[in-house]
Specification:
Mean pLDDT: 86
Strand order of the largest sheet: 4-9-8-6
Low-confidence stretches: none
Distance between the termini: 58 Å
Number of strands: 9
Radius of gyration: 20 Å
Strand content: 25-35%
Shape: elongated
Order of helices and strands: EEHEHHEEHEEEE
Length: about 150
């Protein structure tokens, strides 16, 4: 069945893309959850128009290479309270890193930040941000004790 995606879905594609998927998957999963709609000419035109409106509203298209270049060389610093062993009471998580980047004017979703475990002690850490498949950037996170 030919569908058009209404939302970006990791395993299928991005919003506005037209895909061929099995009939049952489309009818029982994608369409009821409003992730996709059957791809007819009216639906395709409506979705394309919505995408153009969104791009016009935000002022630009989503360009992963621009965001990757913005992130390159960025260093953010956290000062946290620690116990006598140097372990932080509140560790530095992906969400905290995303909020700090947001404060710098760089919008990154926390799930795009690749952090194996939360940062729990002072030091300098390299953190990878996967913007889109094929577009990665690395930032420095400096953790200091209060």
């Amino acid at each position: 069945m030919k569908i058009i995606l209404l939302k970006t879905e990791n395993k299928i594609g991005k919003k506005g893309e037209i895909k061929n998927v099995p009939d049952g998957y489309a009818q029982n999963f994608l369409i009821p959850r409003k992730i996709a709609a059957p791809a007819d000419s009216n639906t395709i035109n409506t979705i394309k128009r919505d995408i153009k409106k969104t791009e016009k509203k935000t002022g630009k298209k989503h360009d992963p290479s621009t965001l990757a270049n913005k992130l390159r060389g960025v260093t953010i610093t956290f000062t946290e309270r620690a116990d006598e062993n140097g372990t932080y009471f509140a560790s530095i998580t992906r969400d905290k890193i995303a909020k700090k980047l947001q404060a710098l004017g760089i919008a990154v979703k926390s799930k795009k930040i690749k952090l194996k475990t939360p940062i729990k002690s002072a030091g300098e850490y390299k953190v990878t941000i996967e913007i889109d498949p094929g577009y990665k950037s690395e930032i420095s996170v400096i953790a200091k004790n209060l």
